[in-house]
Amino acid sequence: MAGDGVERALAFFTSAYSSYSGCRQYREDIFNAQRAVGPGAPEVVKTRMFFNHPGWIEANADHVRTALDELGRGSDVHIAFTAHSIPLAMAQACRYEDQLRESARLVAERVGVTDTALVYQSRSGPPHVPWLEPDILDHLRAVAARGITDVVIAPIGFVSDHLEVLFDLDVEAAETAAELGLTLVRAASAGTHPAFVAMIRELIEERLGVTSERRVVGRFAASHDTCPTDCCLPGTGRPSPWDAG
Of 89, 114, 125, 223, which has the highest C-beta tally within 10 A? Predict the structure, then answer.
């Protein structure tokens, strides 16, 4: 980019939620790349987190409605909203859980289902390090124990049906549901839903100053554009590359 004469660039992070892994780590990587390039490195600004943007909520709600139609049931169903688990120490240093719960609440409200839960998948790392729970497979067992028979899984923590979604949900969760006698339908992620695509354009125009409107729904204000230096710390106690100047 520097060689091509680019002086300023805009970054769209494909995570709706604030966390070290979903935002700050990308910013650190950009910072390290800028230092490696030197004084001629382009400035890189970012769009805001979009967990409460109406386009994000509409896209996910529409896919959940499709899953409910496939299931053939109305409100008499359980929806498990899934997101990537992160270490507990990391979660305590950001608003990841709060933002996920707000997205899930808004989608559930729009589809008219009250029996819902926020659960997690894709856990990794040493077993002794606590991560966010419950895991989706454990949750399915708990749901079956309650006597529930129909479940929709909505991967609200992800923007596309990538490998983790396909394996964790379409393979492992589907196999567990079959063992438990649950009827399971997995809703699609936002993907290329028109409302999500339109939202991306809107966030770009917003950040470039083409529009001053910052659309949100629900209880929270629009996320900031420029992150504070202490935002979304890793929770591991390790220093940030910014600390080195």
Answer: 223
Token pair for residue 29?
Answer: 């990587």
CATH-assigned architecture of domain 54-186: 3-Layer(aba) Sandwich (3.40)
Four-point Cα dihedral 61, 63, 68, 74, nearest 10: 20
User: CB-side exposure of 24: number of CA atoms within 13 Å?
Assistant: 23
| Tokens encoding 216 | 């949100």
- Answering whether pTM is above 0.90, one says yes
Angle made by CA atoms 120, 126, 129, in degrees to the nearest 5: 65
User: How does DSSP assign the chain, residue by residue?
Assistant: -TTTT--EEEE--S-SS-SIIIIIHHHHHHHHHHHHH-TTPPEEEEPPP-TT-HHHHHHHHHHHHHHHHHHT-SSSSEEEEEEE--BHHHHTTSSHHHHHHHHHHHHHHHHT---EEEEEE---S-TTS-B---BHHHHHHHHHHTT--EEEEE-TT-SS--HHHHHIIIIIIHHHHHHHT-EEEEPP-STT-HHHHHHHHHHHHHHTTS-------SSSPPPPSSPPTTTT--SS-PPPGGGG-
Domain ranges of the chain: 8-50+194-244, 54-186
Q: Any idea which residue has 């809703």 for tokens?
A: 187
Nearest to 96 by CA among 161, 25, 46, 29: 25
Contact call for residues 24 and 234 (beta carbons, < 8 A): yes
Distance CA 115, CA 97 (A): 18
